[in-house]
Amino acid sequence: MHKKAALIWVALMMLVMPAIAVAQSKDELKERFAQRYAELLRLRAAGVVGETYLGYVELVKGDSSAEARVRDLVSAENADRRTLYGIIAREQETTPEKVAERNAQRNFANALDGEWLKHSDGVWRQKKK
Question: CB–CB of 26/72 below 8 Å?
Fold first, then answer.
């Protein structure tokens, strides 16, 4: 009987642990997004980075002359977005690309006047009201 109870417990934990791991990952991602938020806002306002139609941020000029810390910030933001899109996609039984597309649409709609947005034709345009 003890073996059966142990097997049931193990099976239950296998079901519960992924949910716990996802929650921790989402919390960790939320914290990292919050830490970068003010700097990303500043860089968007300055026209250094912009949102893309794919749901990620990029350097507007696209060249490697940006400071290493800016390139690192963009890379970290995109890596965390990619992870979050994957988590949400699993929860919603869709693809990370669909989640990214919805986020891009929201980011485009919420962009401030003058911020740069990269459209599906690959062209950067400043948002105008």
Answer: no
Spatial distance between the Cα atoms of 88 and 56, rounded to a whole number of angstroms: 15
Take residue 110 and report the two structure tokens written for it: 């919420």
Bridge partners, 51 (sequence order): 57, 117
Q: Distance (Å, rounded) from C-alpha 89 to C-alpha 102?
A: 11
Dihedral sign of CA atoms 49, 51, 52, 55 in order:
positive
Per-residue model confidence as pLDDT tens digits over 51-85: 999 999 999 987 666 788 999 999 999 999 999 99
pTM above 0.85, yes or no: no
Q: Where are the alpha helices (DSSP H) in the chain?
A: 2-45, 68-92, 96-110
Tell me phi and psi for residue 77, to 5 degrees.
-60, -45
